[in-house]
Amino acid sequence: MISRLSRSAQRSALVLAAFLVAALLSYFSVRNARADHFAGLQTRQALERATELEPGDARNWYLLGRYWQFNLEDSDPSKAVHAYQTAVSLDPRSTVSWLGLGSAYESAGDLAHAREAFLQAKKTYPLSAEVAWQYGNFLLRQAEFESAFAEMRRAVESDPKRGAEAFSRAFRAEPDVDRILNRVLPPVRDVYFDVIGDQIADGHTENALKVWDRLVTIHPRWIGLVGRWLRVRSHRRGIFLALSGDLAKRAIQRRCPGKALRRSLLAAGV
């Protein structure tokens, strides 16, 4: 009789324990779902509520940091720094949180800690084009051109679509085309095409000619230009210039590509 009562008590205890576990799991699931809901609303009140519901979720603190950093009507760099600091303390491997922290520190005028945060981002993701890009631009703003150009080159090597913007930003900081071509742009054909098109579109024909000359110097026997068209737009007049592969081939043969390209631009009225 005592044995049967003992087994009955054990079963009851197991049922109760299972019920409690299920209740706890249900509670945490609901709380997590509510936190995700509030985080998705992207308002200050909602994001703060999300951090209250799930204070150990680094993503919620990261999103709150972004709010304080980028909200035009309610920005607060110091609060952004605090939110990002909490995020990286919870998840030290979060590259985006380190990048956000670096940017927030810079906005707050704390350049030393900004540099440290960007370097931490590089440690978490050494091959990231975004990390190299943001850190390179930070260095560019500090007029540390050599280091900035090296980081920007890494970014363009990983993501060639950044080439035109990299050239443009570097040129605004240091208007030396040859130095930028040497330090910032990798010898990638499509990168040079993008830069040429972008510079002509912005009215910087002389820069485009120099980039064109360098492209032909890098690929003196390259005939892949034949049959291709380089379309660049002049926003000033709305004219589209189509530079044929035949012209490019002749320019290479004559060893005066810049002059040939200049004549075609003038003929097109650019």
Task: Provide key terms for this protein.
2 strands; two-stranded antiparallel sheet; 270 residues; elongated; Serine Threonine Protein Phosphatase 5, Tetratricopeptide repeat; 3 domains
How many helices? The count is: 14
Within the largest sheet, what's the order of strands?
1-2
Can you tell me the CATH topology of the largest domain? Serine Threonine Protein Phosphatase 5, Tetratricopeptide repeat
Measured distance between first and last alpha carbons: 103 Å
CATH homologous superfamily classification of the largest domain: Tetratricopeptide repeat domain
Following the backbone from N to C, one meets helices and strands in this order, namely HHHHHHHHHHHHEEHH
- Mass-distribution shape: elongated
Number of domains: 3
What structural class is derived from the secondary structure elements? mainly alpha
* Beta-strand segment tally: 2
Helix content: over 70%
Low-confidence stretches: 23-39, 223-257
Radius of gyration: 29 Å
Strand content: under 5%
Q: What is the C-level CATH assignment of the largest domain?
A: Mainly Alpha
Would you tell me the overall average pLDDT?
A: 78
Major sheet attributes: 2 strands, antiparallel
In the CATH classification, which architecture of the largest domain applies?
Alpha Horseshoe
Topology, pairings included?
Elements lengths: L1 H40 L2 H10 L4 H13 L6 H14 L4 H13 L3 H14 L4 H13 L3 H14 L4 H11 L3 H7 L5 H13 L3 H14 L10 E6 L4 E6 H10 L2 H12 L2
Antiparallel strand pairs: 1-2
